[in-house]
Design a protein that fits this description.
mainly alpha, two-stranded antiparallel ribbon, 2 strands
Length: 202
């Protein structure tokens, strides 16, 4: 008989509540251990009973080590979050992005025919040169990847055509052999007899 749906609310009967706690606690720890074994994960579980008793499971180490790892990761995440939310940091990033945009726009104007570069200082020209070298490198890398892909595709087509040609040649040879055999079978076979009277062969 199927079990009914369990209502997610506090169990009023203390005996039933304790039995359910023991069963669910054991199931939770078992699932945590299976997760650690199957997925090679570091798992830490702590359960406090209604009476204050603690049950814990720590895989691949101890609970204190997992807590220290959690604190370290949480501190780094909070530091990154506070850094990102810092108005001064945001303003600096916006300023750097604006400078980079202005530099790229000046470079584009120069490439499209505006030869007057007197308004750019040495630092900006060097930065533009570096960006241009990076662009050229990326373009050449992309071009070489496309060429290599086309060469590989042509090699595959060549292999397919060669295999198809070999199959067709085998079929032609088979058909030629079949026709030769059929022609020999269709040729009439005459028996030659010599008559005593005429001395001729028939």
């Amino acid at each position: 008989m199927p079990r009914g749906k369990v209502q997610m609310r506090r169990i009023e009967n203390p005996v039933h509540r304790q039995v359910t706690f023991c069963k669910r606690r054991m199931g939770l720890l078992k699932k945590a251990k299976e997760l650690s074994v199957l997925c090679d994960a570091d798992v830490g579980v702590m359960v406090f009973s209604p009476h204050g008793k603690i049950y814990e499971l720590a895989t691949n180490g101890n609970m204190q080590g997992l807590i220290e790892r959690y604190k370290g990761n949480n501190t780094e995440a909070q530091g990154e979050s506070s850094k990102q939310n810092n108005p001064q940091v945001i303003q600096q990033e916006v300023l750097l992005l604006r400078q980079e945009i202005d530099l790229l726009q000046n470079g584009l104007r120069y490439m499209y025919g505006a030869k007057d570069m007197d308004h750019m200082n040495l630092h900006e020209l060097q930065a533009l040169e570096i960006n241009l070298e990076i662009w050229v490198h990326n373009i050449r890398s992309t071009k070489m990847q496309i060429i290599a892909g086309e060469i590989e595709m042509l090699k595959n087509k060549e292999g397919i055509l060669k295999a198809t040609n070999d199959i067709l040649q085998e079929r032609v040879i088979e058909q030629s052999g079949f026709l030769d055999t059929g022609s020999n079978m269709m040729m009439p076979q005459f028996a030659f007899h010599r008559t005593m009277e005429s001395g001729h062969y028939f």
